[in-house]
Design goal:
Blueprint (H helix, E strand, L loop, with lengths): L1 E2 L4 H12 L5 E4 L13 E4 L5 H11 L3 E4 L6 H6 L1 H21 L4 E7 L22 H20 L2 E7 L1 E3 L11 H10 L5 E3 L5 E2 L1 E3 H11 L6 E5 L5 E2 H12 L6 E3 L14 H7 L7 H9 L1
Parallel strand pairs: 1-2, 1-4, 2-3, 4-5, 5-6, 6-11, 7-10, 8-13
Antiparallel strand pairs: 9-12
Helix pairs in contact: 1-7, 2-4, 4-5, 6-8, 8-10
The structure holds nicotinamide-adenine-dinucleotide.
The site of nicotinamide-adenine-dinucleotide (NAD) has 30 residues, from helix 1, helix 4, strand 5 and strand 7.
């Protein structure tokens, strides 16, 4: 069962799981997800905050594994409405874990985020780096990681936490977390000019959605009780990203620059050695190739 299966990462994941022969169902309230993303897949349409509904879905479907992607996934939105963020991300997740342990599930695979680290004290970020979230979103995602550890301790529910870097790929909306690739491409395709906040030298770790799908698939059987960084393991500046997108799209213009956004982190990229060992996974899609995949 994939919660949030109608969203960006979920719909890419489901296509791959179906191809591999898995029986898949989706729990989604379609708040940001789209029903056309999951045509032909069994959908339980409803909200994670509805405890009875979540229990009914899990009991009826009796999945072996839940891949938990459903979330309020926007950092800015978590600053505008922190209590809605905490409700959806924390209470919604706890509802799911309660149903999961009562339903005798084997494992939860959870999509966490680089936002749990806050401003890096050192780079690249490894999993030992202190968690110092600087947004409600980062804190709510981190709290859910701790609930998973608690549920394993109390009830033996297995888990793998995947702390995803900036995911990009076809089907991503230009709002939401880590959407700068989608934002630049949208601007260019609609005849506008991409806007860079700050001097563009800030770095991020961009990972193509197909590599995320591969990591989640590995976590179905591996990475028991592990918390793992999932990224490309490379720093890419926003200026570099713009140059790659410019080359791949044939865009003739230059970006506009605006003042940095308050709270924007200067540099962030991952050490991904632990995922290589625990999941036997490593990323395969280079950024140039990934951008090309977004265009066709
Ligand atoms: N995209 C990224 O760069 C990125 C990076 C790090 C972590 N993540 C995490 O990965 C997961 C998936 O992200 P995405 O980019 O696919 O986001 P998305 O918004 O495209 O997908 C989220 C899905 O969850 C559903 N949903 C939201 N609230 C719900 C609720 N209360 N009940 C039921 N369904 C609900 C939405 O309808 C949507 O289909 C999220 O947990 C996000 O925090 C994403």
């Amino acid at each position: 069962m994939v919660t949030g299966g109608a969203g960006f990462i979920g719909s890419n994941l489901i296509r791959s799981l179906l191809k591999s022969g898995f029986k898949v169902s989706v729990l989604d309230n379609l708040s940001t997800g789209k029903i056309e993303n999951i045509a032909g897949v069994k959908l339980y349409e409803g909200d994670l905050l509805d405890r009875d509904f979540v229990c009914q879905c899990v009991f009826r479907e009796s999945p072996e594994v839940v891949i938990h992607l459903a979330a309020q996934a926007s950092v800015p939105q978590s600053l505008v409405d922190p209590s809605a963020d905490a409700c959806i991300n924390i209470t919604g997740s706890v509802n799911l874990f309660e149903a999961s342990r009562l339903g005798g599930l084997r494992k939860v695979v959870y999509a966490s985020t680089a936002a749990i680290y806050g401003s890096p004290r050192y780079l690249p970020l490894d999993e030992q780096h202190p968690a110092q979230p600087l947004s409600g979103y980062g804190l709510s995602k981190y709290t859910v990681e701790r609930y998973l550890q608690l549920y394993q301790y109390l009830y033996g529910l297995d888990y793998t936490v995947l702390r995803l870097a900036n995911v990009y790929g076809a089907g991503q909306s230009s709002s939401g977390e880590g959407g700068v690739v989608a934002v630049f491409l949208d601007r260019i395709m609609s005849g506008g000019q991409p806007l860079i906040h700050g001097d563009g030298r800030q770095t991020r770790d961009f990972i193509h959605v197909s590599d995320i799908v591969a990591a989640i698939s590995c976590a179905l059987e591996r990475g028991s009780g592990a918390v793992l960084n999932i990224g490309a393991g490379l720093p890419v500046s926003i200026n570099q990203l713009f140059r790659i997108i410019k080359k791949e799209t044939g865009y003739a213009g230059n970006p506009a620059f605006a003042p940095p956004r308050p709270g924007d982190i200067k540099e962030s990229w991952y050490n991904i050695n632990r995922a290589a060992v625990e999941l036997k996974w490593s990323p395969t899609v280079r950024l140039e190739q990934g951008i090309r995949l977004c265009l066709y």
